Structures are given as C-alpha cells and as structure tokens.
Amino acid sequence: MRIGLTGGIGSGKSTVARILVEAGAHLIDTDAIAHALTAPGGAAIPAIRAAFGDEFIDPGGALDRRRMRERVFTEPAARERLQALLHPLITQIALADAATAETASPPPPCVVFDVPLLVESGHWRERVDKVLVVDCEETTQVERVSQRPGWSAERARAVIAAQASRAARHAAADAVIYNDGISVAALRTQVLDLLRSWGAL
C-alpha cells in the first residue's frame, strides 16, 4: 500500500511519520529530497540559478533558503515557478525510491510518502492508495511553530496562510488524525489502529 502523509506546519506530521517508521513503513521524505536537490551541487541548482538569478544561490553553492522563502511568500508566481522546477524532480526520485522498496524481500507493509504540499501539488492523490492528513487547530499550530528557534507567531501565521486550508486537506483525505491535546502514546494508538484497518501493518 502507498500512503500519502500530509498536514499543515506544526500539525505533528513528523511525529506521525516516526510512528509509521516504527511500525515498519518505508518512509520517503519529499522535504529531504528537496533539500538534497537544492544543496551545493544539487540537481536543481542550475535551473534555479537560471530562473531566479545568482542572488538566490548562496556563497557555498546552495539555494539561499531565507531569500527564496521571502520571495515566494510575497510573490505567488515565484512560488509556482519554483515548484514547477522542483516537483517533477522530487516526484521522479520519490517514485524510484518506492519502486526499490517494494521489490525488497520482504517488502515493507506500506510505503509512506511524506508530502507537506500533497494537496497543493495536485498530482500526488493519483499516485497513492490512501491519503492520511494530520490535523490540529490553527492556534495549536501557531503555538507549536512559534516555539521553534527563529520563528515568531506572525511568521507561523504567514506560512499557515500560504498552505492549503484545513478544509482542502480534509477534502483530500481518506483519514484524518487529530493531534491536538493528546499524548504521543494516544497519537500512536490512533495511527496503529488506522494502519490495521487499512491492512497496512
């Protein structure tokens, strides 16, 4: 089974991903793939340089994430241009990783694609059997994110506003895990019960 895992920033998606790995899932982290593509010598660097200019490449040869973040949050067209460069490469690498995992002996009970922009991308739904959304109240998201080093509540709200709405994620979901005001143990129970119901354990 292929499962698409998504959720807004601060929802606890990374914690759910760890629980899935502990349960035997093969995890494919598309954020990690994106970081590799935009690291020094990454496959996406030449295209980013051509599309945005040298000022978006740092002295070490990697994507200048701070500068790019500021640009894409203020210019939706720039965000779309960046995603058009990265998403095909990310998808290609992720699907190749999944195919390799599924031919292992024995294969994992499920392959999980951790895709923060699953709903926004528009093409992941057809590539997975199930979509699992991790959800919580927006106030909880802001509280969690603003506790991270270098983050403020204002910046957290700006990121949340730029992501798909909770309603849009719910509409795309086969199941929603609510991670608000519960312990990690209770969260784990929810996740494992869901996997059993899907036959993915």
UniProtKB/TrEMBL annotation:
Top-level division of the source organism's lineage: Bacteria
Family annotation (SUPFAM superfamilies): P-loop containing nucleoside triphosphate hydrolases
Catalytic activities: 3'-dephospho-CoA + ATP = ADP + CoA + H(+)
GO MF terms held by the record: dephospho-CoA kinase activity
Keyword Kinase annotated: yes
Similarity-based family: Belongs to the CoaE family.
Protein name: Dephospho-CoA kinase
